[in-house]
Amino acid sequence: MSEKSIAIVGATGAVGAEFLKVLEDRNFPVKEIRLLASARSVGKKLRFRGKEIAVEELTKDSFRGIDIALFSAGAGRSLEFAPAAVAAGAIVVDNSSAFRMHDEVPLIVPEVNPEQIRKHQGIIANPNCSTIQMVMAVHPIHKEANVERISVATYQATSGAGAAAMQELIDSTKQALAGEKITPKQFVHPIAFNLIPHIDVFQPNGYTKEEMKMVFETRKILGAPEMKITATCVRIPTLRAHSEAINLRTTRKISVERVRELYAKAPGVRLVDDPAHNLYPMPIDATGQYDTLVGRIREDVSQENGLDIFCVADQLLKGAALNAVQIAELL
User: Fold this and answer.
1) Which is the catalytic residue, given 120, 129, 233, 311?
2) Domain 4-126+321-330 class in CATH
3) Which of 37, 76, 146, 255 is the most buried (most CB within 10 A)?
4) What is the pLDDT along the chain (331 residues), one digit of tens a residue?
5) Is 102 considered catalytic here?
6) Would residue 129 show up in a list of annotated catalytic residues for this protein?
């Protein structure tokens, strides 16, 4: 790969920090790196490849000479600044929800639909974190036996709500253990020793926006507009790595043994499935790891051609920064 000039929008956020780590860990050919954030972060220094680099203010003139711009600053910032980046000649890889469902914007998981990247017109969307790991688990089965329905329950770490939410979990846990009153700021209820079945805003149909993202994005990525999907998304008191209990139905019978064979060969997937020795995917094992862990694979006793699977992936890595950098590598 030739060297590229890279801009990171939202460089001081939780995903921005992971962008830097992943670019360095994967030895991405960076010619220049430009760290962009809001005015209040200007002058803050972040480390990359042994050097301290100062954060600059994000403006519409920030993208001159940039080849690839990695955005993770929220949908509003993406809508405002991504067109300016494209106009300056950069290709945008956007981690927000701003462009995911636009027909002209590819929604890419490199292990699943890399061929779609050729259709980009300057902007490529990084899917929602919970969607990414689900399609990583579902895609090998879908190719083999055609998945026609998915029912998923997610158990999502506080990292999905950003660095401030992760800190709130730490602080509120200390408060709870000390018997102090907890006043939530990042969540609508206390997160310490609690589960909150509410991620993003509720929609008129009773689902949350996060749940409907999983429906619409999965269909787009898999090229399966008629696939039946239902989701319940739950915030849990862990720092990193989302977990998902996936129930699916295929049109063709597929054995558990064959599913294990498929996962053993699937890029970016690691099979962790030995219940006899208490081995199964857990957030503590997925934290800091690139792979999506899959296990608890079993036939669904309630329906024909049904399977149950449990998968875990680091939301800040495969669910965000890693997937975006993999897209940059494809470019």
Assistant:
1) 129
2) alpha beta
3) 37
4) 689 999 999 999 889 999 999 999 999 999 999 999 999 999 899 999 999 999 999 999 999 999 999 999 999 999 999 999 999 999 999 999 999 999 999 999 999 999 999 999 999 999 999 999 999 999 999 999 999 999 999 999 999 998 899 999 999 999 999 999 999 999 999 999 999 999 999 999 999 999 999 999 999 999 999 999 999 999 999 999 999 999 999 999 999 999 999 999 999 999 999 999 999 999 999 999 999 999 999 999 999 999 999 999 999 999 999 999 999 999 9
5) no
6) yes
Query: Of the residues 120, 139, 142, 242, which is catalytic?
Result: 242
In the numeric block, which tokens belong to residue 182? 């907890």
Q: Which residues contact 102 (CB under 8 A, 6 or more apart)?
A: 123, 125
What pTM does this model have? 0.95
Beta strands in 157-289 (DSSP E): 228-235, 242-250, 269-271
Tokens of 264: 């053993």
- CATH topology identical between 4-126+321-330 and 131-316: no
Q: Using alpha carbons, select from 136, 127, 157 the residue that is nearest to residue 309.
A: 136
Sequence spans of domains, the chain: 4-126+321-330, 131-316
Distance CA 116, CA 118 (A): 5
